[in-house]
Each structure stands twice: as C-alpha cells, then as structure tokens.
C-alpha cells in the first residue's frame, strides 16, 4: 500500500483526491491546504467542471471522509511543519504550485516524506519525466520528480514523432482555458495580461513550454517558439502547431503517422480522431493529446497540426501513471 498526501487542494489536488480515494494500492492519508477543510470538502463534493462527486464526502473535525475513508485534513502553510514522518507518507503530490523548485519541494522530505511528485515542470534541477516518453529512466534514487505540465505532456510526443521526418522549426500556440493563475476581474499582476478579466478576453500569456521541450528533446534546441492564449472557457485546451519540416509531406502521411502511433506504441497516451470536436468534447479525456486529423493541413513542407487535451483530467492521468512507477 502506497501512502499518499496531497499538498494544495486546488483544481489539480482535488481531482487527484477524487481519483485516488478508491484506487487499489493507494492509501490517501492526508491533504493539506491553507484554506479551511470544510470548504475543501464542499469543493470536493461540488465541482463546476466534472460535476457532483458520485460517492459520499463529508467534513469531520480535522478530516475529510470520502466514501467512508478518513483522510486527515491539515491547514499548514509551512511544509517543514507537516507531520509526514508520523503519517509515514511515501509520496507527497505537491499541487500548490508554490514549492516547485528543488529547495521548495525538499521541505516535504525534511518533514519526513520519502518522495515528492510535482504537478508541474518545476526547476531545471528536477528530473523531468513525461509519461509515455522517458518515464523508464526513473530510478529508485530520485526523491523529487516532475511529470512536466499539461502542455509539455501534449507537445513532447507530437514533436518527437514529427522529428522522424525532421523538424526545421516549430511555432506552437496552446489555446488554453483560463486558470487560477489569472484574475477573474482586472487586477495588478506581474505579467500584465494575466491580470485582465479571464472570462472576458482572449489573453496571450508567457509560458515556459519551450524550455521544458528543449530539455526533453535537445535535438530541437533553438528550433521551438511557444505562446499560450488563454480563452474564456473553464476547461480544455487546443494546441496549434505550425512546423517547417526538412522535407515535403502530405496531410495523409502526417495523419497516418499519428493514427498508427495512437493505435500502437502510444495507445492510451495519444488518441487520433476525425470527429468534428469542440473543446467541451475533450472533458474527462485521459489522453495527453487527441490529434484532430480533420484539421491537419500541409503546404509543401509547411505543416499545421491541431491536438486537443483536457488540461486537468488528461494531466492527472499522467501523474497517476507516474505515481505507479514511484514505489
Ligand atoms: N489547472 C491546470 O490546468 C493545471 C494543469 C497542469 C498543471 N497545473 C499545475 O498544478 C499546480 C496547481 O494548479 P491548480 O490549477 O490546481 O491551482 P489552484 O490555484 O486551483 O490550486 C492551488 C491550491 O494550493 C493551495 N495553496 C497555496 N499555497 C499553499 C501552501 N503554502 N500550502 C498548501 N497549499 C497551498 C491553494 O489554497 C489552492 O487550493 C500549478 O503549479 C499548475 O501550474 C495546473
């Protein structure tokens, strides 16, 4: 039985809670957030994206009881003060977004956890393991690991597969639902545009996707540019890749490449579809990316490829996959 704690019960932390509570081989022993646990229990029960929890979830003093299982609920801002040693926590799922550097994540180890799995890319000194790409390099020695972000999980496979033809350059724009790292109404923000009303505008934001892709695919260093455009929907993302390949290709060749990958070695990681999807259709999809073959277009060696993903559900699926490798 792997003993798990979740630090940061936001969108990602709560979705992991819902998915892990009844999972074989997992014991969810504690959650921690700076917010009150009765509020967390309420948000676990009623979710604006994925609907009402199908089991039972109630708040008890110092605990959240879900499907009859008692999960300790802590309210501690400083991770070094968390009782991970007493609770014999094997892995902390660090989902607060506040401890994504090595120094930050190490605080959970100091508190007595054996290992930490981030919910984002993290600093460059933390091993970056994208499930379905390089998770096999994980050794038992690693105590802090990163699964990449949702955008990295989508893009890595696509660029790796297309680089079999040869990529000269790639421009990537991830059209992404708004997140809590934006403001709902206009407010001051270090990245000015993230401070603009999230549900009112199409908002380009700076991202670190290029850096993580260059770490994973060093052969593409200097060939990648990326931006994310936040759009007024609460869930879902559409990645739009424009590539110059080393040689001319066809729409049929590109689609065949991805349809074959999805049906074989990338089964469960990549999906290929020719259905006329919109972003809502991707809700609850467990794949890292869903290639939309209807939108592939090619002019000579110039390729446009579109992939959908559920930034929450698809991503937490990969975190859970990676967790399974952390025994
Ligand atoms: N939402 C997404 O689509 C998505 C996808 C992939 C990765 N991520 C990454 O996951 C992380 C969390 O994202 P989110 O969307 O769940 O954010 P969120 O804002 O919904 O949740 C963050 C939670 O952490 C809590 N928190 C803040 N400081 C804390 C502290 N010191 N100790 C404990 N808890 C604390 C907050 O109260 C909140 O409940 C971020 O790093 C984000 O980049 C998010």
From TrEMBL:
CDD domains cross-referenced by the UniProt entry: GAPDH_I_N (cd05214)
Site, Activates thiol group during catalysis: residue positions: 176
Binding site for NAD(+): 11-12, 33, 119, 311
Xref: Pfam families: Gp_dh_C (PF02800), Gp_dh_N (PF00044)
Domain Glyceraldehyde 3-phosphate dehydrogenase NAD(P) binding, first and last residues per copy: 2-150
Keyword annotations: NAD, Nucleotide-binding, Oxidoreductase
Molecular function (Gene Ontology), one example: oxidoreductase activity, acting on the aldehyde or oxo group of donors, NAD or NADP as acceptor
Active site, renumbered: 150
InterPro entries (alphabetical): GlycerAld/Erythrose_P_DH, GlycerAld_3-P_DH_cat, GlycerAld_3-P_DH_NAD(P)-bd, NAD(P)-bd_dom_sf
Record-linked PANTHER family: GLYCERALDEHYDE-3-PHOSPHATE DEHYDROGENASE 2
Subunit and interaction comment: Homotetramer.
The family this protein is said to belong to: Belongs to the glyceraldehyde-3-phosphate dehydrogenase family.
Protein name: Glyceraldehyde 3-phosphate dehydrogenase NAD(P) binding domain-containing protein
Organism lineage string: Bacteria, Pseudomonadati, Bacteroidota, Chitinophagia, Chitinophagales
